[in-house]
Design goal:
alpha/beta; 7-stranded parallel β-sheet; globular; Rossmann fold; 7 strands
């Protein structure tokens, strides 16, 4: 797929992987519609980019609300005439045991992580099919391929995004519309501080900043620069590759999980 002189929509675009994707796609010659629920940060980053001459439009959007995703689609088409690339990237995490996760927290995590990409696919894919070209990138996670304790809601949604993406890829075969599934492991973002954007009624305290070196030590992994992830996404879109696996350790964990399934072994946490 060619990117220059075409239009992308990126959700979760105000920070992390979404912001890196925005910057890389602009460098590839695309116009970008940035969507995020964190409106102050969204406006700040959009102004920074437009001041540098970039073709960027900011649209506040809660991806858990189908009407807002539809409005995002309409705003993108109104501004640029078409959408050629959709990056369903917005995501949140809440770490706690499954049996103590409140229903309203489940609603929040499922709404953003799973329904957000689902709404994006159902609302943008028909446009791409009609124009005969396009590509959708759904951000899942290594957590959609192998599980750990304490992240049940996150795992459930990210496994769902993987299944959604695989199914959509099969359905769109031959339409000119490609699908990729991004499954990053540790990336230097603020995903572990995502409760900052949770609905006020959930009553979360402001999250503490978690230094990346602390995360690296805890996870036994090296945090990837979001810009490097964005580069892998661009390659996958241009080459029409489905899987985007950022870390070699993910292959090892997936192979171990598949071996457990084949041997009917009970799930066991192994870092």
């Amino acid at each position: 797929m060619l990117l220059a002189d075409r239009t992308a929509v990126v959700t979760g675009a105000a920070s992390g992987i979404g912001l890196a994707l925005t910057e890389r796609l602009l460098a590839e010659g695309m116009s970008v519609v940035m969507a995020d629920i964190e409106t102050d940060r969204l406006d700040q980053e959009c102004r920074r980019l437009t001041d540098d001459g970039a073709a960027v439009t900011a649209v506040p959007c809660d991806v858990a609300d189908a009407a807002q995703v539809a409005a995002l689609r309409d705003a993108a088409v109104s501004a640029y005439g078409a959408v050629h690339l959709l990056c369903n990237n917005a995501g949140v995490a809440s770490g706690r045991p499954n049996h103590t996760t409140r229903p309203e927290v489940w609603d929040w995590v499922v709404g953003v992580n799973l329904l957000g990409p689902a709404y994006g696919c159902s609302l943008f894919a028909p446009l791409m099919v009609e124009q005969g070209e396009g590509h959708i990138v759904n951000t899942a996670s290594e957590a959609g391929l192998a599980s750990t304790p304490m992240l049940g809601s996150y795992h459930a949604t990210k496994y769902g995004v993987v299944g959604l993406s695989e199914s959509l890829r099969m359905e769109l075969e031959g339409t000119g519309v490609g699908v990729s599934c991004l499954c990053p492991e540790l990336v230097d973002t603020r995903i572990f501080e995502s409760t900052r954007n949770a609905p006020a009624e959930l009553g979360f305290k402001p999250p503490a900043h978690v230094p990346v070196d602390q995360l690296e030590q805890f996870m036994g992994s090296k945090a990837m620069n979001p810009a490097d992830v964005a580069g892998q996404v661009v390659y996958a879109v241009q080459a029409d590759k489905f899987w985007i696996i950022t870390h070699q350790v993910t292959h090892q964990r997936v192979a171990r999980r598949h071996a457990d399934v084949e041997q009917f072994r009970n799930p066991t946490f192994r870092p």
